[in-house]
Backbone:
């Protein structure tokens, strides 16, 4: 007979796939103050519009939701307005807007303590070191930064020179942005935005705009309070984070418990966020003698400030964090999720992780596993030759219970469009998100995206290989790509359309056949596994291959359901890990 292995998440959905409420989620991340990019994103989002005269976002469909993945500010002259428009949309439609906070957002908490008058003295300048989260060879102290400014005016300036002329709040903000926040030049971009808003934009006004942003009634402080660190969307089995999942999955700072239940972990992590924000609001400045977790070596005579653990949480390599973690390998290339973490997630109905944080080419990167997929959508380094490092590139990720659509354009202006899971009227792309079959020639290359199919054109795909922030691309015709995979995979026998419903608390699986003779190869989609050699399939469609899987003795106790179609009988065994068809 035909034996096949099918991933458990396909039957663990808490709803009927035929009766899922239609929800369209428009996902955007890492805009980083670039208003022009955000406008392009809105154009590709399908269900949102931007009204420039009012600086206002609106939904065009009552079923749509907006999830922003973090890093709203820093690298463009639009930070103030983007924060305002997302806050306004959240106030108008709170249940339809989710704000995930990123490192470029929460690191602004430091302004309340580090711009106080007592931090500007000559004595404090001598004590302050560079940021502890920056590698020693790249670390710059405030004094070193000011000395560099002094030498720009007088090349004979030394460490013994009087730096009082340069030790002021505008230069301290420049230092913080350039040397501790990774946003060199943002002081001038803030100046430009204030000008566009017809507001004062001298140096003191710029400092004031940053400082008041995070003080009571400041828009960025309000934005923090509306935000979360993690969000789960059960209707589409998707977990949203800013950066990624650390290997110590389930970790929450200050808690001795490692939370294995994803929903509990999310709740506890977001509750910790709000507690830290409250502590910051209650104690916004450095305070002598206050018990806390600040290292006195890095904070002069002061011992603690409110929310300091959260400030450390958003800094690189301080502790296990969902913000500064990324989902790539040590070289910065695609990789699959840790198998143990994947199993924990899929057993709890999570089939997809959507993240930002680390730039990875000119359109989203996809990584598909047998029961899981990752979408990494930070494209802020799309075109390193462009002044804004983005160029023409912009992509939207649109999710609903049946499919994921990625649409947009890459750096040279060519448009992309593809689907990652099967929809009602079509099938997910069989190649995007897959590494090329192993060979020396193919090593490190993944299928990045598919160009939008124009009338009369043949399929074309983009291949990508990344190392750090360096990304190489190659175009490949769909016919050639199909041949690469077909040569490395076993023949198919049958293809089934699968739908799932729940009746009387029992999962029922409905199966119907379709032809597979011209199929390009096993579909690699997120929620199920049919081949023993780890090929990928989706919840509504899956080719069956002749793979011969043996049932183990201990599986005899599990629930058995018999189903049939066209006089063929199948035995369904559910051990909450796999299903077996016979």
Residues:
């Amino acid at each position: 007979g035909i034996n096949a292995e099918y991933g458990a998440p396909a039957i663990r959905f808490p709803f009927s796939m035929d009766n899922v409420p239609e929800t369209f989620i428009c996902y955007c991340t890492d805009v980083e103050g670039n208003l022009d990019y955000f406008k392009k994103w809105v154009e590709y989002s399908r269900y949102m519009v931007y009204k420039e005269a009012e600086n206002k976002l609106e939904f065009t469909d009552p079923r749509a939701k907006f999830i922003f993945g973090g890093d709203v500010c820093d690298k463009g002259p639009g930070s103030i307005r983007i924060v305002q428009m997302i806050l306004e949309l959240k106030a108008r439609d709170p249940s339809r807007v989710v704000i995930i906070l990123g490192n470029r957002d929460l690191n602004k908490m430091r302004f309340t303590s580090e711009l106080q008058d007592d931090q500007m003295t000559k004595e404090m300048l001598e004590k302050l070191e560079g940021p502890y989260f920056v590698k020693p060879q790249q670390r710059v102290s405030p004094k070193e930064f000011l000395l560099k400014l002094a030498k720009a005016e007088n090349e004979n300036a030394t460490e013994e020179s009087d730096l009082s002329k340069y030790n002021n709040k505008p230069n301290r903000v420049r230092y913080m942005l350039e040397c501790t926040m990774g946003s060199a030049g943002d002081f001038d971009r803030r100046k430009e935005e204030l000008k566009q808003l017809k507001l004062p934009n001298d140096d003191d006004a710029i400092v004031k705009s940053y400082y008041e942003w995070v003080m009571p009634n400041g828009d960025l402080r309000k934005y923090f309070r509306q935000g979360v660190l993690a969000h789960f969307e059960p209707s589409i089995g998707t977990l949203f984070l800013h950066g990624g999942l650390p290997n110590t999955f389930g970790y929450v700072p200050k808690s001795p418990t490692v939370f294995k239940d994803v929903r509990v972990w999310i709740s506890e992590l977001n509750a910790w966020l709000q507690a830290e924000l409250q502590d910051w609001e209650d104690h916004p400045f450095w305070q002598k003698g206050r018990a806390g977790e600040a290292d006195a070596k890095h904070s002069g005579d002061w011992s603690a400030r409110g929310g300091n653990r959260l400030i450390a949480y958003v800094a690189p390599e301080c502790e296990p964090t969902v913000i500064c973690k990324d989902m790539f390998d040590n070289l910065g290339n695609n990789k699959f999720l840790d198998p143990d973490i994947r199993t924990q997630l899929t057993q709890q109905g999570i089939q997809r992780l959507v993240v930002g944080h680390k730039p990875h080419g000119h359109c989203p990167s996809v990584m598909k596993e047998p029961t899981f997929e990752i979408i990494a959508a930070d494209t802020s380094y799309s075109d390193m030759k462009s002044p804004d490092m983005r160029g023409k590139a912009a992509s939207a990720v649109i999710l609903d219970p049946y499919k994921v659509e990625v649409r947009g354009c890459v750096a040279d202006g060519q448009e992309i469009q593809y689907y990652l899971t099967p929809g009602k009227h079509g099938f997910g792309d069989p190649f995007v998100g897959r590494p090329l079959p192993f060979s020396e020639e193919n090593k490190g290359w993944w299928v990045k995206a598919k160009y939008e199919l124009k009338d009369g054109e043949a399929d074309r795909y983009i291949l990508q290989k990344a190392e750090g922030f360096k990304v190489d691309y190659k175009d490949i015709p769909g016919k050639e790509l199909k041949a690469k995979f077909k040569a490395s995979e076993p023949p198919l026998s049958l293809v089934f359309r699968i739908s799932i419903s729940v009746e009387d608390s029992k999962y029922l699986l409905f199966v119907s056949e379709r032809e597979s003779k011209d199929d390009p190869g096993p579909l690699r989609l997120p929620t199920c596994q049919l081949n023993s050699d780890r090929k990928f399939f989706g919840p509504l469609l899956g080719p069956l291959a002749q793979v011969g899987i043996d049932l183990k003795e201990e599986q005899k106790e599990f629930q058995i359901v018999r189903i049939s179609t066209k006089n063929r009988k199948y035995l369904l065994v559910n051990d909450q890990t796999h299903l077996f068809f016979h």
Q: What stands out?
A: Confidence is low (pLDDT under 50) at residues 1-19, 296-302, 422-426, 490-582. DSSP finds 14 helices and 26 strands in the chain. The radius of gyration is 26 Å.
